[in-house]
Write a structure and sequence with these properties.
Radius of gyration: 18 Å
Oligomer: single chain
Strand content: over 45%
Largest sheet: 12 strands, mixed
Shape: globular
Number of helices: 3
Number of strands: 12
Structural class: mainly beta
Order of helices and strands: EEHEEEEEHHEEEEE
Helix content: 10-25%
Distance between the termini: 35 Å
Length: 183
């Protein structure tokens, strides 16, 4: 059976779960991500980017976030659970998106990617830098550069404030057989 929660305003599906037994894994993560993205587009969530995944008992839960221009909006996430036996979407949680997604006037990035590269630790091996909006502890949001980097075989996400160049947050990335988690 399927359980779901519909919002009073607008009648949006806040979350749903298809409670069925899931058979042996037959599809890979890439196909699961593609199915999740297609499902979201059909449900009216366009321009969504996968940002992480977690595997559990023959399913994978993928976190998607929307983009505004070239900025990933982390607060507005949607989680989609895909069965790895046949690729069916068996769950979705859009509470974050439905609560926080609005048309934002994002301010300009006052610092450049080059500035960030010069400023950070020279021993870091930078894999990728992206523009992101992250939630802050005080329910504010901060525009940042997200630096995906390695140091002595350990992976980190470093968030540098786009206004003043301050390091806002450093997360250690833990790769497990279940997926990628941050601490």
């Amino acid at each position: 059976g399927i359980v779901m929660d519909i919002s009073e305003i607008g009648g949006h599906v806040v979350w749903f779960l298809n409670i069925r037994s899931i058979g042996q894994e037959r599809i890979g993560i890439e196909e699961a991500v593609k199915n999740g993205k297609n499902f979201l587009e059909m449900a009216g969530y366009s321009n969504m980017e996968p940002t992480g995944s977690l595997r559990e008992s023959n399913t994978v839960t993928i976190t998607f976030v929307p983009k505004s221009g070239d900025v990933l909006l982390y607060p507005d996430f949607v989680k989609v659970e895909v069965a790895l036996d046949n690729g069916q979407v068996v769950g979705m949680d859009a509470a974050g998106y439905l609560t926080l997604h609005t048309k934002r006037q994002l301010s300009e990035f006052k610092i450049t990617q080059e500035y960030v590269r010069k400023k950070i630790n020279k021993n870091l091996e930078v894999k990728r830098i992206r523009k992101v909006l992250i939630p802050d502890m005080n329910t504010k949001e901060i525009l940042c550069f997200e630096i995906d980097a390695k140091l002595n075989n350990e992976r980190f996400f470093i968030y540098v404030n786009a206004e003043n160049g301050n390091e806002e947050r450093i997360l250690k990335v833990v790769e497990t057989d279940k997926g990628t988690m941050t601490m």
